Amino acid sequence: MTSSPTPPTPVRPPFTAESASRKARLAENAWNGRDPERVALAYTPDSIWRNRAEFLQGRAEIIAFLRRKWARELDYRLIKEVWAYTDNRIAVRFVYEWHDDSGHWFRSHGNEQWEFDPEGLMRRREASINDVLLREEDRKFRWPLGARPEGHPGLSVLGL
Asked: Could you give all domains of the chain from N- to C-terminal order, each with its CATH number?
């Protein structure tokens, strides 16, 4: 009889440089997977969000938001980088590239502030984001859809 694999131990606070970076990469990978239900499991059931000018609370609103987002932001690819961390908080900067249904490409630059509960679930997310029109030939995120490959450079190396 084979046993099912043991799920990985969640990354919990207090954070170190290593665990904060791991937490950011796990979040990046999940968002690049574009599965709203899976992504929402990283947040507390009553998680509070501000995304641009939109205010959300709870997993159901997060799932609905992400469905709308990825229906509009096509071929989405994201990179996150830790900016700072403390006991139960992490600040990241991020960039993602996507195109709309007319084929116009964008690069979106943003900052997020995250606060976690003791189990490592995010209970608060504050995101500020700016979109810049991008020529297709200037894209830098060209890996196949899904998680960024391990060897792909991060934001600092790319000069973003």
From this structure: 17-144+152-158 (3.10.450.50)
